[in-house]
Write a structure and sequence with these properties.
The protein is an alpha+beta fold. Helices cover 15% and strands 28% of the residues. The protein has 2 helices and 8 strands, in the order αβββββββαβ. A 5-stranded antiparallel β-sheet has the order 1-2-3-6-7. The longest helix has 16 residues. The structure holds zinc ion. The site of zinc ion (ZN) has 6 residues, from helix 2. Zinc ion binds next to helix 2.
């Protein structure tokens, strides 16, 4: 398994529409496994889309740890752990709204408030090339919407409604104590790279 290089904003490949996967074959499975390994090896990463590693195919991976009880929104069930490798994911149903902080591995250090649907149903192909549906709420729903956006060349900064919320808050400067936190522990409403408030996807 290979750890892939994550490209960053300014690279034109992040702005292209990725092409559909015709069949999930060994090359797609290898890509997804390498992407998953890259998520696992990148501190605080929780998800990745193929264009972020320079591959313009519609493939995403998501890996969320189990939600801590104190992170669970009122009225919601604790989520995770979740590990998804999906080809051709598309949102076929969405409802509700949530606003929360997002970050992106391709825009290191920057975070901002983004509004997303609270609940989504995603149709995709799994690594056996079978059609699957993933129902997600809250943070997982946010992660899926963020990653699917990448497949269409859309970055979270495009979705920020209030530019005042966009801020540079790199890991080293974060004022949240992260000592002793497990890598990848993320609060609902954030997408995971940096700390409890910011994250990368
Ligand atoms: Zn991202």
């Amino acid at each position: 398994m290979a750890i892939l290089e994550i490209i960053t904003e300014g690279d034109p490949r992040l702005r292209h529409k990725a092409s559909k996967v015709r069949k999930v074959d060994d090359s797609i499975r290898k890509l997804a496994r390498d992407m998953m390994a890259t998520v696992e090896e990148t501190p605080y990463a929780i998800a990745l889309a193929a264009p972020q590693v320079g591959v313009l195919r519609r493939v995403i991976v998501v890996k969320l740890p189990a939600e801590e009880p104190d992170e669970v929104e009122e009225g919601e069930e604790p989520a995770g752990p979740v590990e998804l490798m999906l080809a051709n994911p598309e949102v076929i149903r969405s409802s509700g709204q949530q606003t929360g902080i997002e970050g992106c591995l391709s825009i290191p250090g920057w975070i901002g408030d983004v509004q997303r649907a609270m609940h989504v149903t995603v149709r995709a192909r799994d690594m056996d090339d079978k059609e699957v549906r993933v129902k997600a709420s809250g943070f997982l729903a946010r992660a899926l919407q963020h990653e699917i956006d990448h497949l269409d060349g859309i970055l979270f900064i495009d979705r920020i409604e209030d530019p005042e919320t966009l801020r540079y808050e790199p890991f080293e400067d974060a004022d949240v104590e992260i000592e002793g936190e497990t890598a990848g522990t993320v609060a609902p409403g954030t997408i995971g790279q940096v700390n409890q408030r910011a994250s990368g996807a």
